[in-house]
Amino acid sequence: MHTTQEFFPDGTPIDPWFYHTASPQLSALGRQYVLTEHGILDDGRIHTAGIQALIDTAAAEGGGVLVVPPGTYLTGSLYFKQGVHLYVAAGGTLKGSDDISDYDLCQTRMEGETCTYFAALINGDGLDGFTLCGPGTIDGNGLRSWKAFWLRRTWNPACTNKDEQRPRLVYLSGCRNVHFADLNLQNSHFWTTHLYRCHHVKYTNCRIFSPAAPIKAPSTDAIDIDVCTDILVKNCYLEVNDDSVVLKGGKGPWADTAPENGSNERILVEDCVYGLCHGCLTCGSESVHNRNILIRRLTVLDGHNLLWLKMRPDTPQHYEYITVESVQGRIQNFVNINPWTQFYDLKDRKDIPLSYADHITIRDCNCDCGTFFNVAEAESQYLLSDFTLENLEIRAEHAGAALDVVKHMDARDIRVSTKE
After folding, report:
1. Strand 279-283 vs strand 243-248: parallel, antiparallel, or unpaired?
2. Could you tell me which of 202, 149, 140 has the C-alpha nearest to residue 172?
3. Taking Cα atoms as reference points, which of 354, 358, 350, 364 lies closest to residue 296?
4. Beta carbons within 8 Å of 395's beta carbon, 6+ residues apart
5. Between vectors from CA 366 to CA 362 and to CA 368, what angle results, nearest 5°?
6. How far apart are CA 55 and CA 81, in angstroms?
7. How far is CA 299 from CA 31, 245, 272, 280, 363, in A?
8. Nearest CA to 170 among 246, 52, 79, 97?
9. Which of 40, 92, 178, 192 would disulfide-bridge 35, Cβ 3.0–4.6 Å?
């Protein structure tokens, strides 16, 4: 039991909900609906219709838990209903089809906009109290689409992420009181888990993985948090060929006024280990407002960026009250704040919307870096102010920008040794 009151960066108390991290027990999830007891077998066939019918039956009978026993069970898009949970047993794998025709087209949220795109492997909308747990694996089976994506990029270097048709692993919208626990989530075709307009979601003791070799798994972010509040990521291993924890929320010259967009607030990431990833914490590239983000007690084995603020010149953004503390490991850029112009489009807006990053604190870190402070001054596009850097032991190839690129910089007990 946690007895000391802790606070988010702006002084908001951390709610006791964040400290309740015990793994769910199968026996507590209700009546068990085991795949093999309902004719769904480890036989190499696609069982989408059968599994969906079982989910629907469980919901109609008052709820319970879909149990994936040992073996590998293939499926396309599944839609979980209120009161139906998912448990994957040790040695069990729920595996996605590698044929895009097994995933439905629908109206969904993708890359900062509502659009027609493909459903995920696991989908949930408006669920209250959804548990996905167990020591087994949910495998996206994405190799075929990764190869197709890079072939398309060779043919057309300007193609976007959505041009190669590929589903996410898990997409939850409008859900609350969700718990991912103990699972292996791997090999997604596209983003691995995507939360949109959700609140009170926990990831505990999960392993989220996609490879960077021999075939890179493009844009397989581990956790995309999109207009959400009260999210906990604890005791997880994150290794993906893109960003690990990334905050979304909308993009475009008037993104801050669109009702489908919004803020991410009260996000806590702690006690995690990062393998290869592009960003340990990334704000962007579709993000309008992030506040009260606390990242602490991380080990980074091979990160490209520890804190990455992607500043879009075509989108008004505000990143505030973000704290990163107690990090050790190897990182290419300790801090990366630069203009981000991928798919830049001001539409018919004539001025560049001004963005802000302020009340950023980084402390108590011991890291090896390529560049310590990779920060570009661009006052016509964004203003940086009120940063605190404290108790940092950094060994870097390059120091990077001078700290006075930030207005009201409070730098204390910083030891940066470089080869310059």
Report:
1. parallel
2. 202
3. 364
4. 367, 368, 369, 416, 417, 418
5. 110
6. 7
7. 39, 14, 7, 10, 14
8. 79
9. 40
Q: Write the DSSP assignment of 218-280 as a string of letters.
A: TT--SEEEES-EEEEEES-EEE-SSEEEEEE---STTGGG-TT--EEEEEEEES-EEEEESEE
How far apart, in whole angstroms, are the C-alpha atoms of residue 62 and residue 64? 7
pLDDT in tens, 205-247: 999 999 999 999 999 999 999 999 999 999 999 999 999 999 9
402 DSSP 8-state letter: -
Residue-wise DSSP of 130-191: EEEESSSEEE---HHHHHHHHHHHHH-TT--GGGS----SEEEES-EEEEEES-EEE--SS-
* Angle at CA of residue 137, ends 131 and 139, nearest 5°: 110
Q: Is the pTM of this model over 0.90?
A: yes
Are 367 and 334 within 8 A, CB to CB?
Answer: yes
Is-cis flag, bond preceding 253, omega within 30? no
Q: Output Rg (C-alpha) for the chain, integer angstroms.
A: 21
Residue 407 tokens read as 């207005």
Question: CB burial class (10 A; 0-12, 13-18, 19+) of residue 205?
Answer: middle
Distance of CA 96 to the CA centre of its chain: 20
Q: Could you give phi then psi for residue 150, rounded to 5 degrees?
A: -70, -30
351 vs 335: CA distance, rounded Å: 28
Q: Are strands 113-118 and 105-110 parallel, antiparallel or unpaired?
A: antiparallel
In whole angstroms, give the CA distance from residue 109 to residue 123: 12
Two tokens, residue 208 = 């989220």
Q: Give the pLDDT confidence of 327-356 residue by residue, as tens digits.
A: 999 999 999 999 988 777 788 888 889 999
